[in-house]
Amino acid sequence: MNSKFTKILFLVVSLLITQNLFAQTTANLSGLVTDGNGAVVAGAAVKIVSVENGAERTATSNENGIYSFQQLKPGNYTVNVTQQGFKALQVNDFTLAVGQNREFNPVLETGEVSAVVNIATSEVEPASIDQSSNRLGVNISSKEVEQLPVNGRNVSQLYLNAPGAVNTGTGNFNDLRFNGRSNQQNQTKLDGVESSAIFDASPGYVTVQGSNFRLQTSLENIQEFRVDSSNYPAESGTGTGAQINIIGKSGGNQFKGGVFYYLRNDKFDARNFFDGADNRNFA
Asked: Is the pLDDT of residue 9 over 50?
């Protein structure tokens, strides 16, 4: 009896873990290595190095010149491609976004390996349309999270950049709908973990219905995220509303941080019709 219970428990735990593994928290990179004449280059070493923490991954192009990286952490990378008889190729600030299947096709020049050819990131940027999937959505990068104006510092306001997103009128942007679907169908994942059922216990959120976005996290904790509003991939099987995948910040080799203050002083308000002549504020 105990043995049977243990097997059932193990099966349930395995299924729960597998569900989180399906969440799109990573990115993929692949491509074709060729020379200047268009001939494939087999055996080329492709190495990517994380700018944030120095982690390295290496792949080798096969007999057809194809290489592939799977399940890479989103972020900025340096890409190096080397092969005997060709100049080394290096690309800095190569960005991979969450859920992205990016293609990069290196073209090697004949020469000594010790010679390095640096390529600007703009020369290898893919088209804005992801041709590997028919899903409809948007990626919000760490730079956009940091610089886009947000009233109240609520991350859900940035979800409105996704196609089909509409705010129902709430001032806290806590009740969004996508393509006319019920807000009860929106699903949120934080680092691959289902978080749609997490709610904030602060006043005003205890009685929030299950249809709202109840994940309350600081913008300072978010590296980037993706919102899919239509034509979801197979792993997004719960809910027909938005599929939101948030990637939190993690440690790196550089010490950095941020400080902010939410200032709402009436001295900064514009003067209105009823203000007297002496009420100049800061004007």
From this structure: yes
